[in-house]
Amino acid sequence: MARQLALGLTLPESTSFESYLPATNQQAVADVAACARGLGELFIYLWGAEQTGKSHLLQAATQLADQSGRSALYIPLDQAAQLSPVIFEDLEQMDLVCLDGVDRIAGQGDWEQGVFGLFNRLRERGRSLLVAARCSPAHLPLGLPDLASRLSWGLCYQLQPLNDQDKIQALSEAASRRGLALSDETARYILRHTQRDMGSLRQLLKQLDQASLEAKRGLTIPFIKTYLERQRKELTGER
């Protein structure tokens, strides 16, 4: 149950706590993991800019809850157009509910009422709730004052983005999990010549893994330079 999203899709196996580099977010990560296990705070609100790992942590918590024998559900509210607030019915029976992107439904009365009711039912039963958004509770453009008040309860963490050295470490660790060797110098080259957000970097590493396997080459700067140039030519139609 825990590995399924509300849309019936499977959570990616890579979204674990082990694959998330905490950097300056250690306390937030520790508290989210404890919540997933049914320990510590019952309600945690995470917020921050894009690519700070909010979705990663909520998905990791969902999977950790499953591994701990708890029932859990991850709901991506950025896909609310494909869903309905009725999805919240009876979710108080779950041990953990993760609502990702609550800012996406702000200002929509039926959705706000749905989240408000779910919050109250989970709290009454002593269940856990993790919420993520791009802004703090105080800055959510909510039309329901009581929901704004509820979302200010519990722990609230602003996730901080990774700096360049953190990204180098994250790339190195991600490469190691794939059985690849990636030097700091090579990781710096990648940062200088590609999109720098972690989502794009992880996707590139996946592509480089496949390309290096096919070419029977290691992840060296010359190999990566050639690969990136070939990708650029394919995108531009250059020969």
Describe the structure.
The chain is of the alpha/beta class. The protein folds into two domains: 23-158, P-loop containing nucleotide triphosphate hydrolases (Rossmann fold), CATH 3.40.50.300; 164-236, Helicase, Ruva Protein, domain 3. It has eight helices and five strands. The protein has a five-stranded parallel beta sheet, sandwiched between helices. Helix 1 (26-36) packs parallel to helix 2, helix 5 (164-177) crosses helix 6 (184-193) and helix 5 (164-177) packs across helix 7. The longest helix has 18 residues, at 198-215. The chain is elongated. The termini are far apart. Residues 164-228 form the Hda lid domain.
Work out the number of β strands. Answer: 5
How much helix is in the residues? Answer: 40-55%
Mean pLDDT: 91
β-strand amount: 5-15%
CATH H-level homologous superfamily name of the largest domain: P-loop containing nucleotide triphosphate hydrolases
Unreliable stretches (pLDDT < 50, length at least 5) are none
Query: How is the largest sheet built, in terms of strand order?
Result: 2-3-4-1-5
Named CATH architecture of the largest domain: 3-Layer(aba) Sandwich
Q: Give me the secondary-structure category.
A: alpha/beta
